[in-house]
Amino acid sequence: MPPTTTQQTATTIFYRNRRWLKFVDRFGKKGAGIVEYLGGLGTLLVQTLHAAVTRPFYGSEVIAQMDDLGVKSVSITGITALFTGMVLALQTAYALAAFGGKMFIGQVVAVSLVRELGPVLTALMVGGRVGSGITAELGSMTVTEQVDALRSMAVSPIRRLVLPRVLAIVIMLPILTALADVLGIFGGLFIAVVELRMTPPDYLNSIWNHLAIQDITSGIAKTFFFGLIVAIIGCYNGLQVSGGATSVGHATTRTVVGASISILVSDFFLTKLFLAL
């Protein structure tokens, strides 16, 4: 017998509800995974802060990580800032040419770099290079059971592996950002002199007269938060690796993506906070 209209309606409702329940189930699992991940990051952050104020303290390891994670990142952050300043000067000159605003180029370049582009681009470059490196290193140590070996010797992985890397990035990222700001301003100066026929005093006076100390401090202050975000995400993903080399690669990708998104999102809220102060 062919199905009746009532049976067809009941069957349609059943399959619709089934698809809806599958969607809810997938959404719930994703939400639970996100909450668990954020909880793990928060737990690692609390443990790291506790290790920072208690003994023992591996000072030599912090210095070694500052060299490896910070000093060796000077080239990539410097090149990025230099050409960003040059592009800003060109775009500003093009946009303000019709209004006779050539004298404002130095001001626009300096404020844009110091408040936003310098801290954010430096953090993104460091997050891509350093964050992925931390995850790959700690992930390899986790897979090869070196982390378990530290625990068996009563050595805290948080204190020995995580804290030195967190401190190194938090200390070095503001320094890298300050260097990047200077290089970006000089990149704009080069374009202003060569392409726009401005004199160096005019360019520098525009910066000196309009760049406030609050602009510098707000940009540098952001980098402490950015550094903490990059380090915690990189360390957590590395310590959570399970499996083989493929898992290490996936964890590295998650670190780069997660750190980049977190930097951009946190930059918005930090900007709102510093503008309100």
Proportion of residues in extended strands: under 5%
Tell me roughly what share of residues is in helical segments. Answer: over 70%
Structural class: mainly alpha
Give the number of helices. 9
Give the integer mean of the pLDDT values.
85
Radius of gyration, whole Å: 25 Å
What does the main sheet amount to? Answer: none
Number of strands: 0
List the quaternary state of the chains.
Answer: single chain
- Domain module tally: 2
Walkthrough of the structure:
The chain has 277 residues and is an all-alpha fold. The protein has helices at residues 5-52, 59-70, 74-96, 105-143, 146-152, 157-194, 200-210, 213-239, 245-276. The longest helix is centred in the N-terminal third of the chain and has 48 residues, at 5-52. The radius of gyration is 25 Å and the shape is elongated. The protein starts with a helix and ends with a helix. The model has no long low-confidence stretch (mean pLDDT 85).
Write the layout of secondary structure elements.
Elements: H1 5-52, H2 59-70, H3 74-96, H4 105-143, H5 146-152, H6 157-194, H7 200-210, H8 213-239, H9 245-276
Helix pairs in contact: 1-6, 2-6, 3-4, 3-6, 4-6, 4-7, 4-8, 4-9, 6-8, 8-9
